[in-house]
Structure formats: structure tokens, C-alpha cells
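Q: Can someone sanity-check these two? First one:
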Amino acid sequence: MSEGTRMSKTTGNFEGGVDAYKRGDYGTAMTEFRPLADQGHAASQLVLGMMYAAGQGMPQDNAEAVKWYRLAADQGHAGAQDCLGYMYKKGYGVPQDYQEAVKWCRLAAEQGDAGGQDSLGYMYKKGYGVPQDYGEAAKWYRRAAEQGDAGAQYRLAVMYARGHGMPQDKSEAVKWCRLAADQGHAGAQYDLGRMYVAGNGVPQNYILAHMWLNLTAAQGTEKAIKDRNTLGEKLMTPDQLVEAQRLAREWKPKGK
């Protein structure tokens, strides 16, 4: 069998596993991924690790998740390196070890993996496994944010809002918060709503404030439910409330 034929067969099996996984058919996904993982297919090893970590199609088992993440990470798979770093950070399936977490997150980050960059930024922000350094945190958050990672965009916005690692800049905070909110990030949507309530970095606008708080409330954020209701009951006219509700109904996430 030629190399091209072997690659075609592997790709087909992997794609079949991905399709089954997306359908929630974890048994079929496991049937497709496991032989590939046993043969050393790094992407299959990563997904198998994710399934064990989440208990999808089998009992949840962090130690097995770590095993498969490590096999893929040792092959240089950036996503697996980030996942392995996360397991070390949390102490899931391995003893908690911030230095090991930083090691694996850095390997992923230096390959340009947005998840690894975001994770490394978090480690620098908290001082986990490295000296606390807001400047380094902001650097890695920015690299992930520029790739469209919503979590990193939100965390970069918070750094700007608080002046951590760079001069405080409300306009930059709003910019990055909006990019994350536009993707559906609940924390960013809530903060953007609060910015519009107070006119903090943006012109005060109760209609937009209510829209963003309403979108956050729909994700089950209790404080957003309370703030949305207070805003609607005490500060808005009936017409404003109708318009805000219309905007929330018609909103769609960007980039998805």
C-alpha cells in the first residue's frame, strides 16, 4: 500500500470519528479513534484524551486522559501539549505541578497555539510556576487574542481596564471586550453591558447595556439577570426596553 493510500485511509477514519463525535455518537467515535491512536496518530490521541477527560462514551478517567495527551504531546502536537499543561495546572490525573504546566503550555504557545498562549498568559498573571509578570501575561494574551481566542480577548481587556502590564486604556479595554462579547463570551458580554450602563469607555446607552446583559443572562449568569432586571425596571422607558429585547433576539455571534 502506498503512503498516499495509507494517509487517505487514516484521514477517512479520523474524519468519520470526528463526524460521529459531533453527532454525540461517542461509541462510534471511539471505534474510529482508538485504532488510530494505538498506531500513533497524534490528533486521535488528543481527541481520545478529551473523551476520557469528559467521560464521553466511557467512564471519566483523568489518568487515561493524561496518558493519551502525553502520547500526542510527546509527538509535538500543540493542542495536546496545552491540554497536558492544563491537567498539571489543575492536578487532574497527575500531581499538581505548576512548573510542568508551564513547560507544556510554553511548548504549545511557542508553536503559535492560541490555547497554549492563553494558558501561558494565565500562568504569568497568577505567578503559577513562574514569577508573576503582568507584562508577560499581556504579551501572551495578546498573541492568542489576535488569533481570535475569545477568552484571551476578554482577559486582555481586563488587563487594559486595570492597567496591568500596560498603561490603563479604557478604549482598548472596550475594543477587546467587544471582540470577545461578539463571539458569545459571557464574561465579556456582562462587562460590556456594565460599561454601557455607566458610560465607562463608551457613551452611556441603556438599550445596548440591556441587550448585552440580556445575552449574558440567557447563559445563566445570575448577576446579569439581576442587573438586567434592575436596569429595565428603574432606568428604561417601555420603548427602550422593547428595542433592547429586539436587538437581543436578533443578535448572532460572529466568527462561528
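And here is the second, same format, sequence then C-alpha cells:
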Amino acid sequence: MRDLPTPWSTLVRSSAFLSLQGAHLYTSAALTSWWRTVRRSTVPAVFAVLGTALLYPSWTSAQDAGATEPLVEDATAAGGEATSDAVPTDPTDVTDEGVPTEAVEASEGVAEVEKAMEQVAEETEEGLPAEFVIKFGDVHDWIRLTSGEWLKGKLKRLRDDDIEFDSDKLDLLTFSWDKVEQLHSPRINTYVFDNKLDVVGRAVVTKDKVLIETAEGVERYPRSELLSIIRGEHRERNFWSTRLSVGFSGSAGNTNQGQLNAHWDLRRADARTRTQLSYDGTFGYANKEPIVNRHLGIAEGKLFISKRFFFIPATSEFLNDTFTNFKFRATPGTGAGVHVFDTKKVEWDLGSAVGYQYTRFLSTAAGVANPQNDGFISFRTYADFDFTDDVELVLEWRSNVLYTNINLTNHMGSAKFSVEITDILDLQTTFKFYRTENPPPRADGTVPEKNDYEVIVSLALEIG
């Protein structure tokens, strides 16, 4: 989407700055208090070890293969008023790889690319000729929509049946892959196919096939088997992304209270795997007394066996919650899942896992074991609804059923509604729910409430 007008951008940046400044002093005090509580526990060590194991990438296959080619700085719709600094060249002046030595003039771009695509279609109609070389019509990326419109710019990626095409002038454009009739990309990219095959090279994509010019020659694949396109060659940094959201509320006067909510996650996603570390923290006080102090970490890795099924080799939750009497709770396990729906507008996953739960309470009544060790079966679901390109709703639910101690069965659910403000900034509203079926009494005889609820309004920054 396009950036907000200048006044709105200034207002958003100013509001975020003032909110974060106001939260700074409180956050420092709250973090210091929490660290004193858990520094003698095993949370940091366990979380660090599991995180390292999950996030350690396959460096051998992901090393940089060299610098990527320069990217185009503009994209122009066919038929629009376009300018170009390129020196007029003879379109037949090409390199050994079939790429023009210089960009063609903007007025000739569509004609040259169309000519190149027609030539490829004719020469490969009955198969790949010997020593075939793709003759590209321009040095830039082009896509042709089913409407017949050509766009020039730089291909960012293809993922989840959406293609992203970027430019400084037209901003980031997202199209459903089935709305793209042809792709002309003389730049080196990585093409990922359904049969666990990654092919690196320059390519053209027609209605039914993908032709990729590799170091060994031109290779041909069915378009229906193309899963994704990763810009450039395999580079480790292309697989990483992160998201940080912060929300703060407070009041002073007759009532002095405040609450800070923070969420951070780090993800690594390639064609075959997904790995994620996330942290949720909630700190609250009223009249200088703490009323909320909860920390939840989740580490999980997924291995995609096919487009529909995935295996979860390792997953775990780590919880520290002072006011529900949990000093430390960990739930390492392993499981599997299935994509029930995976469309442009709706994604729905179901999964299950088995594992072990370790629970240590802050205090317990006489006769209650502390710590406790139990086995569990986990049931989970995840749904993502994209109402528009800028509005999204994500629903998530996890239930850990303890078959050795049903009283400690626990559930977590969340609903996150976000509206995109800019390419990297979202306004987000989140509802969270936590439940323990029958929490044991504390040493003083009081029993924690079974349910906890949160509603959070925050700004979220996403990179990658």
C-alpha cells in the first residue's frame, strides 16, 4: 500500500515516540524485578539451548554464492509515460546468456519483451532444442497480467500463490499468481518446485511452463509445480524476518497504574522449513504495586513433507507467571500437522503433538508436589484470514491435555487483528486468553484464578 500523507506519517511517528519514551522507565524497573525472580531458574539456559538447536541453519547449502545483480529502481506500467536514461542499443546485441548488454528504450520495452516471449514459445513448442538459449528482450524484470497489461520493475518473490513486484514509483505491488500470465526475468533467482527441487538461474514463465537458464543449460518444468521464487541465489539473510510490537497504557492522579505489553518473534523460512522463536511479555502495576508479571516464550521448527503435510521435530513453550503461581513451566514435544486450507484469502492448519511438561510453582500448600512432571497430548489450530491486502485476522489456539494430571491441563488462545499503515508498520489489536483447569493452592491457601484475559492495542514493526 502507499505511504500515508505527510501529516498522518508525522502523527504516527510522534505518537509512537512519546509512547515508547513513557514506557522506558517503567520497562527498566519491571525487567529488573522479573530478572531477580527468574535468574536462578533454568529458563535462560533451556530457552537458549533449544533456540540455538532450532535456529541453526544448514550453512553449507545457504552460503552466499556471490553478489546478486543490481536491482531495478523503477517500474513502469505499459502504455504510461516512461523515461529512461538507457542509451539506445541494438536489441540483438546480447551476452552469451541471452541478456541484452544494455537496457532497451522504455518506448521499445514492451515490444522487445513480447517478441522474446513469442520466440521462446515457438522454439520450445515441441521440446527444448539442442544448445537452446533464452533470448531475453530487456535487462529488467517484466510481468504480463491476464488483462494484457505489462509491468516493468523488479521481482521480489513468489510465495503462497502471491507474487510481489516492487518499485520506488509504484510501491510494492502484490498480485495473485493466477493473475500473472507471463514472467520475464533475466536476473538470477531461485525457483522452488513441488518435488523438493531448487533451480537457480534466469527464467521466463508462460501459461503452462517454466524455462530456466542454468549453468548446465536451459531446463523446463511445469508451471503447476512451481511453489515459490526467491530473489537472487541462495543467501542466508533472505530467509530471515522479525516482528516487534509494543503497547502501553497508563493513568495517574486518583489512580496510578500502567501496563506494558511487548511481543517479538524471529523467523527463518525457506522452501522446506519454518523455524520460529517468539516472546510475549506483560508487565503491570497499580499504585506502585505489581499486578501483572507474565513471560511466555515459544520455540518451534517445522519441516514440510509436501504442500499439505508438515512434521514438527521440536516445539516447546516456556512460561513464567508470578500471579498464577508458575515459577517455570516447560512443554517440550514433537508432532505433525496438515494444511486444511491454503488459499489466497484463507489459511487454516491443524496439528497435534506429544511431549513432557515440567512445572515448578512459586509456592504450594502442604501435600502438593513441587515440581511436577507430566506427559501431555497437544492439540492446536492456526487460521489466517486476509480480508484485503492491508487487513488481516489471525486466530491461534493450543491445548495441552495432561494425561497424567488432568488438573494441570492448560490452554492458550489469541486473536490478532492488524491493519497495515506502511510496508513495515501495522496497527494491531490482540485478544489473549490463558487457562489452567485446576491450579493447586498456594502456601497461604489461596487459589489462583483459572482464567486470564488480555486486550492489547499496539504498533508492530516488521522487517523481512
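A (reply): Looked at the second one. The chain has two domains: 6-59+238-463, 65-233. Confidence is low (pLDDT under 50) at residues 1-92.
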